[in-house]
Design goal:
Elements (H helix, E strand, L loop, with lengths): L2 E3 L16 E6 L5 H6 L3 H4 L8 H12 L4 E8 L5 E12 L2 E10 L8 H16 L4 E4 L6 H9 L3 E9 L5 E10 L4
Parallel strand pairs: 5-6
Antiparallel strand pairs: 1-2, 2-3, 3-4, 4-5, 6-8, 7-8
């Protein structure tokens, strides 16, 4: 899968320094359910409607494994293979057309190092290689400064705020960020 360099902005206790390291995306597998559990905390889901039940996590895991268009990945440090997060892209109907949508989560111990932006750049390359759609969108909450910064750092263009339902039944105001996959 795609390997992307990223700039880190610090060290992380026993995780060591990761500056200048490369990030790799590996396809989601049956063995990756633990990452969903790890990210199912109030801290990680504050902008997504809160933690999910075990049943909903299992359903999400199935959807990740069975995506018909797009793909989910675990983001890993290229040098050690250590999983640091989740990212992917999938189809969404948006304003009378079908686009790719992306979303991500970097494990708390690895946040603040530029890993999410590196993963976002890598998933842009994967969506571009998949073809099919011209645009890749991300819809972070307008209040989620870190995810909006990831979009900016990864080269997405801010189109503005929109009302967005995620998860089903939970409405929020999100920013619509778009990456033109046809551009250089």
């Amino acid at each position: 899968m795609e390997t992307a360099g990223y700039g880190a902005d610090g060290t992380g206790g026993d995780m060591g320094r990761t500056e200048g390291a490369a990030l790799r995306l590996e396809p989601w597998t049956e063995d990756d359910f633990w990452l969903l559990r790890l990210h199912n905390s109030p801290e990680m889901t504050a902008h997504l409607g809160g933690p999910e039940s075990e049943e909903k996590l299992a359903s999400r895991h199935r959807r990740y494994l069975e995506l018909e268009a797009g793909r989910m990945y675990r983001a890993v440090l290229a040098d050690s293979g250590q999983a640091v997060g989740v990212i992917g892209f999938w189809e969404r109907q948006w304003r009378d057309t079908t686009v790719w949508e992306t979303g991500w989560g970097i494990s708390p111990a690895f946040q603040g190092r530029g890993l999410a932006a590196g993963a976002a750049r890598a998933v842009v390359a994967e969506a571009r290689a998949a073809g099919r759609h011209r645009y890749l969108h991300a819809y972070p909450s307008v209040d989620h400064a870190a995810s909006n910064a990831v979009c900016r750092a990864a080269g997405f263009t801010l189109l503005g705020p929109v009302d967005f339902e995620y998860p089903k039944g939970h409405w929020l105001t999100s920013n619509d960020w778009r990456f033109d996959l046809a551009s250089g």
